[in-house]
Design a protein that fits this description.
Helix 3 (34-62) packs across helix 8 and helix 6 runs antiparallel to helix 7. It is built from 13 helices and no strands. With 313 residues, it is mainly α. The protein folds into two domains: 4-282, no CATH class; 286-313. Helices cover 78% and strands 0% of the residues.
């Protein structure tokens, strides 16, 4: 399973290249200009701060407080790792483990990250279904069924969050009590839920605007009312396992553009432009990595000198 996910992402990317060639990828790279990169970086600041704020709210509700400046730095680092390493979740695991170690509870730190990301994806799904119900798209005929399924899932989440601990000794009882307690304290609490929803809405809007800028940069001229549903559909595919962000995004974007009559090649070019733009917006995370690595390097060097060992270069 460890290799199945990146293999699947590689397969999707290979199919796109096989069907469309390398031309759309080169077109997407050539289309990027300084204005697009600057816009992506500015939007990235807003979305990253909102994501970090959402994380602090959820973590506080679970009993592992986290300051906003530390959360912003860790989130930038997480985004950079997610976009440069296979799997697309390495950065999230890293920030969960790091925060958990600081709080002396790695499990709780990882749960805070999981609930924060999960809450954001739920809000994104709700917004996507609502907009796809209102605006024309290649999947509009499926949206009533999707809305019913989503409503049932949300009702189930609320129901689980209202369960009270029964103190059972079985493994299932402990898992149920932990999930219910996490939902009740970290996400569904009356002080947490409005802030989590607000932060998530801003994040989704920021990503959608970045995608629309990428589409315009790649030469798509369709009106925004036609492009927005395609952007949200492509963004849903971005939560799937990928190879440094690549794979499902290109496949989904090429498909939705083709289904909407805008051309699969234009969709692939848009996806490439979007990928480069979000990578550029995540570059402050590289600075956070270097800033965290240098003190550790200095400490190791000092320890090596004390025992008479020269550290490796």
């Amino acid at each position: 399973m460890r290799w199945a996910r990146p293999a699947a992402a590689f397969a999707v990317l290979a199919v796109v290249v096989w069907r469309l060639g390398t031309g759309p990828f080169a077109d997407g790279l050539r289309a990027i200009d300084a204005r697009a990169l600057a816009a992506a970086a500015a939007i990235g600041v807003v979305t990253t701060v909102c994501c970090a704020w959402r994380w602090t709210i959820v973590a506080r509700g679970l009993g592992v407080p986290l300051s906003l400046p530390a959360a912003v730095a860790a989130y930038y680092r997480s985004l950079f790792l997610n976009l440069t390493l296979p799997g697309g979740v390495v950065g999230d695991v890293h920030r969960g483990v790091s925060h958990g170690r600081d709080a002396n509870d790695v499990g709780l730190g990882l749960r805070a990250v999981a609930w924060e990301r999960g809450a954001g994806q739920v809000v994104q799904t709700v917004l996507t279904v609502a907009i796809l119900l209102a605006l024309p798209s290649p999947v509009r005929s499926w949206m009533p069924v999707a809305a019913v399924v989503l409503a049932a899932a949300l009702a189930g989440i609320v129901l689980v969050g209202r369960l009270r601990s029964r103190g059972g000794a079985s493994r299932w009882s402990r898992i149920r009590d932990a999930v219910s307690g996490d939902l009740r304290g970290g996400v569904l609490h009356r002080r947490a839920l409005p802030a989590v929803v607000l932060a998530s809405v801003v994040v989704v809007a920021g990503h959608a605007v970045t995608f629309l800028i990428a589409a315009r940069t790649a030469g798509a001229t369709a009106p925004t009312s036609r492009m927005l549903p395609l952007a949200l559909l492509a963004m849903l595919a971005m939560v799937l396992p990928s190879v440094a962000g690549w794979g499902p995004r290109e496949g989904a974007t090429a498909w939705v553009f083709a289904a909407a009559g805008l051309g699969a090649d234009r969709g692939a070019a848009t996806s490439v432009a979007y990928g480069v733009m979000v990578l550029a917006a995540s570059l402050p995370g590289a600075l956070v990595l270097v800033a965290g690595w240098l003190p550790q390097r200095r400490v190791r060097s000092q320890q090596a000198r004390r025992v008479g060992v020269v550290p490796d270069a």
